[in-house]
Amino acid sequence: MTTMHEKKVQCCVCGEKSNHKVVRSSYSHGSSDLDTRPPEMTRSTIYYSIQRCPSCGYCASDLSECSGKVKDHVESKDYQEIIGNKAIPKVAASFLALSYEKQQTHQYSESAWAAIHAAWICDDKNKQKASKECRKKAISMIESANAHSQNMGDQAGATEVLTIDLMRRAGMFDQALKLAEETKTKDIEEIILQIIAYEESLIESKDIDSHTVSEALGDE
């Protein structure tokens, strides 16, 4: 069971106070998706894992925390265009705004994760075009993260497997197959190789749907 409570939070950018639902506890039962999205009930708590200030539009996991030039980023034209984009779900726009802010501060792995979360929201709302664009944004940020030695995961090959799934779901089949071939030559564990083989089978059939780790390992 997921338990939540309402909390008044003061925005560190503009000082506005607003109420937000905060997850106190949750649990998951089942297998995560190949792009790491957890099963229910934790799956649905994504909507409460980001807050948006109703005054200035600052988006963060906790509005009371910020650092550096966040105020300049929030007030920028690019940031305001992201949160004002009516073509995508509001929560997805909040995650994309967070992704943008993390990109400006060179926190590329965090930027990628925020874009992935935005894609999940778009998936839920059946906004397929937007979900693909969010995944392409995440792929770009993963590439930047790799260039700056910022890890997306601790296990060897985990970042590559995540990227392969993002590419597949974005319809980037050729790029996904190329990365799969490259990754198989590395010193990685058998479980990673199994997931790659499953991804390759999905790519061959032009499958862009979500699938779970259990499916990849033959547990379902």
Structure description:
The protein is mainly alpha-helical and 220 residues long. Helix content is 49%, strand content 10%. The chain contains 9 helices and 4 strands, in the order ββββααααααααα. It has helices at 70-75, 77-83, 90-104, 108-124, 128-147, 158-169, 173-184, 190-204, 213-216; strands at 3-10, 17-25, 51-52, 59-60. Strands 1-2 form a two-stranded antiparallel sheet. It is globular, with a radius of gyration of 18 Å. The model has no long low-confidence stretch (mean pLDDT 95).
Characteristic terms for this protein:
globular, two-stranded antiparallel sheet, 220 residues, mainly alpha, 49% helix
Taken from the alpha-carbon principal axes, the silhouette is globular
**Tally of helical runs:** 9
Radius of gyration: 18 Å
Q: SS-based structural class?
A: mainly alpha
Number of DSSP strand runs: 4
Runs with pLDDT <50, length 5+? none
Characterize the biggest β-sheet: 2 strands, antiparallel
Concise account of the structure shown:
By secondary structure, this protein is mostly helical. The protein is built from 9 helices and 4 strands.
What is the secondary structure topology, with strand pairs?
Layout: E1 3-10, E2 17-25, E3 51-52, E4 59-60, H1 70-75, H2 77-83, H3 90-104, H4 108-124, H5 128-147, H6 158-169, H7 173-184, H8 190-204, H9 213-216
Antiparallel strand pairs: 1-2, 3-4
Helix pairs in contact: 2-3, 3-4, 4-5, 5-6, 6-7, 6-8, 7-8
